[in-house]
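Q: Predict the assembly, please.
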Amino acid sequence: MERLLPMSPDHDPNGGNSSSPGGGQTGKEQQAAGVGILLQIMMLVLSFVLGHVLRRHKFYYLPEASASLLIGLIVGGLANVSDTETSIRTWFNFHEEFFFLFLLPPIIFQSGFSLSPKPFFSNFGAIVTFAILGTFIASVVTGVLVYLGGVMFLMYKLPFVECLMFGALISATDPVTVLSIFQELGTDVNLYALVFGESVLNDAMAISLYRTMSLVRQNASSGQNFFMVIVRFLETFVGSMSAGVGVGFISALLFKYAGLDIDNLQNLECCLFVLFPYFSYMLAEGLGLSGIVSILFTGMVMKHYTYSNLSENSQRFVSAFFHLISSLAETFIFIYMGFDIAMEQHSWSHVGFIFFSILFIGVARAANVFSCAYLVNLTRPATRKIPAKHQKALWYSGLRGAMAFALALQSVHDLPEGHGQTIFTATTAIVVLTVLLIGGSTGTMLEALQVVGDAHEVSLVEHNFQNSEGNHSYVAPSYDEDSSSGNKIKMKLKEFHKSTASFTALDRNYLTPFFTSQNGDEDDDFDEPMPTSRRGGFRH
Amino acid sequence: MERLLPMSPDHDPNGGNSSSPGGGQTGKEQQAAGVGILLQIMMLVLSFVLGHVLRRHKFYYLPEASASLLIGLIVGGLANVSDTETSIRTWFNFHEEFFFLFLLPPIIFQSGFSLSPKPFFSNFGAIVTFAILGTFIASVVTGVLVYLGGVMFLMYKLPFVECLMFGALISATDPVTVLSIFQELGTDVNLYALVFGESVLNDAMAISLYRTMSLVRQNASSGQNFFMVIVRFLETFVGSMSAGVGVGFISALLFKYAGLDIDNLQNLECCLFVLFPYFSYMLAEGLGLSGIVSILFTGMVMKHYTYSNLSENSQRFVSAFFHLISSLAETFIFIYMGFDIAMEQHSWSHVGFIFFSILFIGVARAANVFSCAYLVNLTRPATRKIPAKHQKALWYSGLRGAMAFALALQSVHDLPEGHGQTIFTATTAIVVLTVLLIGGSTGTMLEALQVVGDAHEVSLVEHNFQNSEGNHSYVAPSYDEDSSSGNKIKMKLKEFHKSTASFTALDRNYLTPFFTSQNGDEDDDFDEPMPTSRRGGFRH
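A: Predicted assembly structure:
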């Protein structure tokens, strides 16, 4: 509580004869705290520099996230060996509060904020299918397999509900590493939109599922029925989404009518703009909903509507601002994960659990991707079907990152008798392995699948090139062909697909004119050839 | 510890039958935490909007800082009346750690970073005199008067050393409110530079003095002599300054040679840039020095050297970034101060202490300003003497803000038996009164003294107008006239004055070419007609 006050650690009055209350910390501990933060900042700087050097030399086997993780692992290992271990650990072992209040919100907001509307909306049906249905499938499959593994004594046995919780948290895929490589190599915009859209939305789904399962576990004794579980899930998901969208719309109207862009009040504009996401996050938390889900949708709405009501300077600033803080938060999370893994006394009795978990999440992701792709392809015309190589790339891209780690950290508190610890250890191991292995091999995989340098290749240099006409055929798919098959499911799926198409129309005809100050047809948001990743250089 | 996890407050498993450790917080408390932060964000938004409306209508009696303080006072008062009081208070009553780790560093850095070099360096001697010698005089005078007041039973009696500590902390003046009005009304650049430079540098002086006195108090029994006190003070001040300047120089060299500005890596550039100030802060803390002093000098060095090594986009971004976060932090601090003052159960037995303190700090500031101005005028040629009306404006501008509040918060821990509490109550009262009264009347005062609309008037609209030639006569003062008086002190003062002039030459001939990539004569930093305040719109 009193660390880092402007009082010198050497001469801490609390260590002296002062009668101040709670002065339990010695000067040495305070010094260690300072050294701990210094170390963290140096690791951050090192990560950025190393990542930059690696990228400049086109060394794709160690992306930035992997580099950060490795730096954390190495420093953690060194600290573990040295004597100062305990005092440094106390500073690294920070509370989840910091994680959830300061690190996660900017990352999630940036996910939503950096979604490029055009490829996202043209693949909206597929993305929603993968994110909602697919994550549900993956969670259940993982949960059931882990439970069966436990029953068959292959691995540590967990209760069924806890297996489902593990399934939910481990189904949250992370976009960072894969996408930075996608962008670096230049890949098909539709594949990019699928991978990005899925990994962003499935965080929201995974957290809602996790929370629902946590409720089920808690109320198992009070005899809640399955129906109530579904209601609770919808309550969390839809409620959070509505809160997020609502806050986003309010911000759009505020900026539309406040006229701040005319008055040259860039600082005021930016201050207000950066407060809204956090407002959305806290509103959802205050209402007992999920802040993460809410801030994600706020990000999407604010990018789509509020953003275009800003002055040009502020637009440039807020993009750079959210990019900056999410980069810092992400890098910090990867460093922290590496450090934590090196510092923790992991019980290696979990090694079987880890091994089979990895196997099972691979199976579960296959069940997710290929079944959902089958469903999506049923509704799409022949020209727009998701090709098999894209499905494989999507399957391969499912590495686990910050969200899985955060939920696992949470589960340590939620679950009794070391079950949470087992899940946490397994999750951190899975995160490290997938980040290092999948992250390191994505380039090779993309080349092997021949999806590199596809039609809509975009390199960093060509960012400003306007090829929005190039993939125009994807935007307005023709629904009139191939509809004679008469399959009932197919019909329903097509109706859903049409509803997403009509959402685009709704957006264009009503929402955009109402919430933004731009004219209906000059859509500023749609001129980006490719969504920007959360790392790497960005356009000017 | 477990507040604000993504777990629903309503259905918190820790409140249920979970066996997780440390689950002492109930769902209700978690909800209150969410509501508390929501409230804070809404107050921030309200402050920005209200401040904007007031400024737009040119209502100078309630500047933004005063508005924020009032909003805090009102909401605090309402919360005090309502039933939810206790739960909201737990969230507002945050630790000093948050204050010192997250709120103060950006404000202090921005102080240094927004210093405009030209008027600052041309008035360097005067500013240093006011900040170092003047703050010392003000601290000692206040301390002695408060002690005498105690001895004469006019006010609560404190030990002499604690009186000096109080004198030191209350001598830290705050630039925010006064300067925003100065800038709004347009005043003489030299007066502006004096007020700004003094209030920035005297924070560093006040904190060093406070710490030195704190050490003296602590080691009173161990028989330290006066000489050691001086050494300790110099150690803290010079050590912190060197650390800050050193980190600034390192950053300048890094950006000069890394070549990030060529490669279009704006995000990487900005990430690294924003890490350095914090690094400086933590380095000083880790070394047992003052982080505040260190980060201030890092800000000055980074603005002067590192900044010009950035790409143009990054320059624009980092200026806006530090402006943004310091605005947020400042507004938050003023809201928080207001809220805290409304919530605390102040014992009004301190009312005498408050009354006489205000009287004494007025006297002490007069001793500071007029004696230092006399000394400075001894060395200056007749054309450059500080006029009496500027001295009066300077005397009047000494309102107390965040730094005094922070140190008073600190003193609650440092001092025994409610002495700290007395100082804290007095300081908060002084902060509120000076912010509201001085802040509200600065416009009137400037008009009464006829320093409004002086020679170098700059309005917000004219920011880009390059009038750097206009006050050129101030930069190279002619030292060869008026040197025949032969007074010894006068000679010494002039030597000091010359050394500051030679510092300008050193900077121009050696430091700038070495640490920046620009040519010697095209000095990018010097084209700003007037330093930007930490609030208000900024140039593009």
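The longest helix of chain A spans residues 226-258. Chain A touches chain B through 95 residues (CB under 8 Å).
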